[in-house]
Structures are given as C-alpha cells and as structure tokens.
Amino acid sequence: MNEVKTWVAPPSGATLWFRDRNDVTPYINETAVRIRAGMMLTIPIFMAFTLWSIVYGSRWDVTGQVIRDTYDTDFDGRILYMVEAVRRTYDYTVQTGVLFYALFEMLASMSVKTSYVSPTVWLANFLARRAQPVWKPLAPKRFAWAIGACMICVCLVFFHPEKFAGALNFVTQTQLLPTTEQYMPRWLPLVMVWVCLGLMWMECVLGFCLGCQIHALFVKAGVFQEACDECNNLDFHPR
After folding, report:
1. Of 37, 151, 178, 229, which has the fewest CB atoms closer than 10 Å, so is most exposed?
2. How many CA atoms lie within 13 A of 66 on its CB side?
3. Which are the contacts of 44, defined by CB distance < 8 A and separation ≥ 6?
C-alpha cells in the first residue's frame, strides 16, 4: 500500500519568501508578496510626482528679482511682464538611484537564491511571520515583476536618453537614435508610472495580480509551457 505524503509547513520565516527551497516548481508566500507590494508602492508615487512636474510643470525658472510691467497686453487681454528667466534643467540623480534600486528589487525577488539579498523581501517576510501563508506558484509573479522591470527601464531611458542612445549607437555602429535631444514622448513615462501605481495598488490592497492573469492567458494560449498545473488555472482573487 502506497503511503500518502503531505507537505508540512516549516517554521515561520525558515525558508524566507518561498515554501521550500528544494521545490521543483517554486511556490511563493502571497501574504508576504502583498506586504512587499505595499512597501514598494512608495516608489511609483515618488516617480509620479517627479514626472508630473517634468511634463506639466513650468519650463522656465525666474532668476531676476524685478518683474517689470511692459504696459502691453496679449491677444487675450492679459498684461505682459518682463522678467529674467532661464530654461529649466533637471537633475535626475536621486530618481536614477531610486529606479535602479527598484529594478534590483524586481530582479532579486525572482529567484530562490537572489531573494536573500533583497531588504524588502526580508522585511515583508518578517511582517508576515504571524499570518497564515498562502502559497502561489512563482512563475506568474516572476512574469508580473518582469513587466515592472521593463517599465523601470523605460523610465531610466527617459531620464538619460543621450546615454542610452550613445550606448545603442556604439553597439550597433549606427545612428539609430539622436544623442542631442529627447526622442521619447514626454507623456509616456508618466502614463507608465500611473499604470504601475495602479497595478501595485491592486496587488497590495485588492490582492489582484493583473500580470499573473496575463501570464495565465499566455499559458492557455501555449505561449508559455509551464510545468505546474496551477499556472493553467490561476486564482489570484482575494478571499
């Protein structure tokens, strides 16, 4: 008679993030994932305010101390004033550092080995230590984080278009992109940041992972060949 073996959960925090490091098909703690998504939510919020200022803010900085009336009006009857102003420039050092850290977090959480270098994984696992684990397959989450990583890369290119264009032109030995102007639409990164903000909010508050659902559709369409049965019948709706 064959003995039926059941898996017994290890002590809280023993495996960090994953159900068992030796699982052929890794399973991840959905409770900790949602907590981590809430912490990471601060990054797109910060980037949204930055990009909003870039896209819709003033392109000029007034440098003079005196604003003089020209005693003239425009076609709408508004009074015209003369000021000393310079074209507004931006320093993206802080934003670049934040984006690179976010990219590191997205990539580090995808693997059993690299998850141990992620501070947010440790913190989320600690905060979830008293909650009942909810085990979900890793593959859909990995796909969702890959989408987030791509969005982060687009924002990095927007902040440093000349560096990306120079590197791409050097590798291809062509002039695919200009190195003296912004070739990306100004609205694109702002839209992507708000999309990312909405997706992360749904993840941490509603427990709904849109990237996981897209992954499930790809599995059913035969685009992805997953080894786990649950990847074909995902249920990431909150309970």
Report:
1. 229
2. 3
3. 193, 194, 196, 197, 200
